[in-house]
Amino acid sequence: MNDYILLMFNDVLDPAQADDGVQWQQYLSMLRASGQFDGGSAIGAGERLKKG
Hints:
Layout: H1 15-18, H2 21-34
């Protein structure tokens, strides 16, 4: 099985949902229970860079 890193950036329509830790935990728990996801820790605020 292949391993992937999923990076998400500013892709939510409702910023309040993005900051809701309870909803994130529920979502990640559902993915883990379905066997579709293994992992799930944030790597920090990060830094956005682009060439140019």
